[in-house]
Automatic annotation (TrEMBL):
Keywords: Cytoplasm, FAD, Flavoprotein, Methyltransferase, Multifunctional enzyme, Oxidoreductase, S-adenosyl-L-methionine, Transferase, tRNA processing. InterPro entries: FAD-dep_OxRdtase, FAD/NAD-bd_sf, SAM-dependent_MTases_sf, tRNA_MAMT_biosynth_bifunc_MnmC, tRNA_S-uridine_synth_MnmC_C. It is found in: Cytoplasm. Its cofactor is FAD. The gene is mnmC. In the C-terminal section; belongs to the DAO family. In the N-terminal section; belongs to the methyltransferase superfamily. tRNA (mnm(5)s(2)U34)-methyltransferase family. The keyword Methyltransferase applies. It comes from the Bacteria. This is tRNA 5-methylaminomethyl-2-thiouridine biosynthesis bifunctional protein MnmC. It catalyses: 5-aminomethyl-2-thiouridine(34) in tRNA + S-adenosyl-L-methionine = 5-methylaminomethyl-2-thiouridine(34) in tRNA + S-adenosyl-L-homocysteine + H(+). Catalyzes the last two steps in the biosynthesis of 5-methylaminomethyl-2-thiouridine (mnm(5)s(2)U) at the wobble position (U34) in tRNA. Catalyzes the FAD-dependent demodification of cmnm(5)s(2)U34 to nm(5)s(2)U34, followed by the transfer of a methyl group from S-adenosyl-L-methionine to nm(5)s(2)U34, to form mnm(5)s(2)U34. The keyword Methyltransferase applies. Pfam families: DAO.
Length: 671
């Protein structure tokens, strides 16, 4: 877009803190149309918005979207310093009740970082980057040419929000022809300051303001005398970007190859990945060993959904909180579209069962000033009132938590994905081998008793739960399977009054279709998935160890009704999301690069080996309903080469290579 000054409404004379956007809305429409026309088909149009009045931009985008016949994908990335600014966004989108409610939840949760909201089958990805703008800009990872097309400045005092360092961070993330658009009235010094910084960093500068004749003349003069050294600016951009990429050598974020995608697995993770990819226009071939989706670890009647908090609120806790909110968003979105998903966000009451667990909970609740909609300390009396039955324990209450039917969520996500793109679903098809030949992947599978070969595929995603390590390429992943038996208890007597999910030594759900779910057992590397009388009694004992009320005597397990699944668990409780590490190549390099300062330097500077076109989505453990949808969204963004909706520390946490690279980067032995 050329350097132009667009005349619109006159400059406001209001005080700075009361100034609102006063541009001609048609000019914002023109900008949206220009970005649509000049973006390659299929690529997302990424626009950053920095300032205070994000609501006006969102409102106008909704108007533009409603009137436009071009259904391009958009990513609006709003940089919000203070969560209270989200209130305006809630008002702007009030007609979409579930989205407005989700925005309120994000506002009230007061959790910094990136929060993603998907609207209109992925036509719009709305990212809220909450916190210090400079820090949020530094945390965004760019690995490909899919970058910001434009930045809108919606604050009347630019110098409060943007420094030269910030502009260079924005430049690092931006397309070579990206523009910075000033959409609020400014005086001449402010325009001159921003225009000169844009000149330095290689941006086109556009001011959608106007007014007095002398103002326009002065701005035109400023534009006319710009001396943009684009070549120098681009070199500086590349240097900053290269520096970030080299800092992530241990965690390759390589996109998928263009072309076909095979996803192995049929649970929550693979279904959510199918949906996230479909929202990006990607079709998949999904292979599931069962006759229907959600029959393995995702097959429970009810699964609890609540965050994993830690006293220090580190990266793990932060990821699970963001995943917790995103999972709620996914469920609400699918339900609002008419997909049947039994669920109830009735809250989760977390209590201790012995001195150690009680001390742990007390440490968690006292460790941080948690927002009230995230975690509340409750007394014994409050716990009894919340649960509707006698708990006789103090603890932590998670107001936004609850339960959901995992296999219905799985089915709904797959159905929604298939309504957007043309997916191929292969059930009763167990993949027994994967092989790469000439950069293409082939699958060997047993389907209805017959061995069949599928392929070629350009990319393969392993989201197959307990079968994740079945293949030579992934056999050495440091991840373990834990069998879990969930018992089904008839709802009767006082137990039927339970109205929130209980979590203690095990978990217990409210009545659903005449049954409660409780458990689960936790057995590493179990030899089979058969029903266990021992584990059924263990689940009963867990309830009676955790709670002393008379209602525990009414818990009846004599019907021997239960379900067994295997959950894949990592030592640090974080999922594995990203490129599949090449263990053989790592070990080969390790033979000559170990236990010295030079070896540490080698592992810092050398990209960690991976299997080209092979990706991992696993290790969701017992909190897959909380972490799975966001983990799938992050992987889909990586595979499509997009800016990732998370921070570098979370990407490091999820890196499938992390167990090995943590040691290698410290010069420690692998074995």
């Amino acid at each position: 877009m050329p350097n132009i000054i667009v005349r619109v409404n006159s400059l406001t004379t209001e005080r700075e803190d009361k100034t609102q956007i006063s541009v001609n809305i048609s000019e914002i429409d023109s900008l949206f149309s220009h970005l649509t026309t000049n973006t390659p088909f299929g690529a997302p149009i990424i626009v950053g918005v920095i300032g205070k009045d994000h609501a006006t931009i969102l409102k106008q985008w909704l108007v533009y979207h409603g009137s436009s016949t071009n259904q391009s994908r958009w990513q609006l990335k709003f940089f919000i310093k203070h969560v209270d600014e989200i209130t305006g966004l809630c008002d702007a989108i009030s007609q979409l009740t579930d989205i407005a409610t989700h925005l309120q939840d994000i506002r009230d949760a007061k959790i910094n970082g990136c929060h993603r909201i998907s609207l209109f089958d992925g036509t719009l990805s709305l990212d809220l980057h909450i916190g210090d703008t400079a820090q949020q800009l530094r945390e965004i990872v760019s690995q490909t040419d899919i970058k910001f097309k434009s930045w809108l400045i919606t604050t009347p005092t630019v110098t409060e929000h943007l420094t030269q360092t910030d502009l260079w961070q924005m430049a690092k993330l931006s397309h070579v022809s990206a523009s910075i658009v000033q959409v609020t009235p400014l005086d001449i010094p402010q325009h001159t300051y921003l225009a000169s910084m844009c000149d330095l960093c290689g941006f086109e500068f556009i001011a959608l303001t106007g007014g007095k004749a002398e103002t326009d003349k002065e701005l035109a003069k400023t534009n006319a005398t710009q001396t943009l050294n684009r070549e120098l600016a681009l070199k500086e951009r590349c240097a900053i970007l290269r520096q970030q990429q080299e800092s992530l050598n241990f965690n390759p974020l390589t996109p998928a190859s263009s072309g076909s995608i095979a996803v192995i697995g049929g649970g929550v993770a693979s279904a959510c990945l199918a949906l996230s990819l479909a929202e990006r226009g990607k079709s998949i071939s999904l292979f599931c060993m069962d006759g229907a989706p959600g029959q393995q670890a995702s097959g429970n009647k009810q699964g609890a959904i609540y965050p994993l908090l830690t006293p220090e609120h580190g990266t793990l806790s932060h990821f699970f909180l963001q995943g917790y909110l995103f999972s709620r968003h996914r469920i609400h979105s699918l339900v609002s579209q008419g997909y049947p998903i039994d669920h109830d966000f009735c809250g989760v009451l977390h209590t201790g069962h012995d001195a150690r667990s009680r001390a742990r909970l007390q440490k968690i609740i006292a460790g941080q000033p948690w927002a009230m909609n995230i975690a509340q300390a409750v007394t014994t009396e409050q716990a009894d009132a919340m649960a509707g039955i006698s708990i006789d324990e103090a603890g932590i209450y998670y107001p936004l938590g609850g339960w959901v039917c995992p296999h219905q969520l799985t089915q709904a996500a797959l159905d929604n994905a298939s309504s957007i793109t043309d997916n191929k679903l292969y059930f009763n098809t167990q993949v027994t081998a994967i092989e790469q030949l000439n950069d293409k992947w082939f699958l060997t599978a047993v389907a209805n008793g017959n061995t069949t070969r599928f392929g070629p595929f350009d990319n393969v995603v392993l989201a197959n739960g307990r079968h994740l390590t079945d293949f030579p390429q992934t056999r050495e992943l440091p991840i373990s399977g834990f069998r879990g038996q969930v018992s089904h208890i008839p709802s009767r007597g006082a137990l039927s009054q339970l109205n929130t999910v209980l979590c203690s030594h095990g978990y217990l759900t409210p009545n659903h279709q005449g049954l409660h779910c409780t458990g689960a057992s936790y057995v590493k590397d179990a030899p089979n998935n058969d029903y266990s009388h021992t584990e059924q009694f263990e689940n009963l004992d867990k309830i009676r160890q955790s709670y002393q009320g008379d209602w525990t005597k009414e818990v009846d397990i004599t019907g021997h009704s239960a379900r067994v699944g295997v959950r894949m668990v990592t030592r640090d409780h974080a999922p594995m999301v990203g490129c599949a590490p090449n263990y053989d190549a790592i070990m080969a390099a390790y033979q000559t690069h170990q236990h010295t300062k030079e070896s540490i330097d080698y592992w810092v500077k050398t990209p960690a080996p991976t299997h080209q076109g092979l990706f991992i989505l696993g290790g969701l453990g017992s909190r897959g309903l909380t972490s799975g949808p966001l983990a799938a969204e992050i992987l889909a963004a990586q595979m499509c080469g997009e800016l990732l909706p998370t921070t570098t520390d979370i990407l490091t946490l999820l890196n499938p290579n992390r167990m090995w690279l943590r040691k290698l980067l410290k010069g420690k032995a692998l074995i």
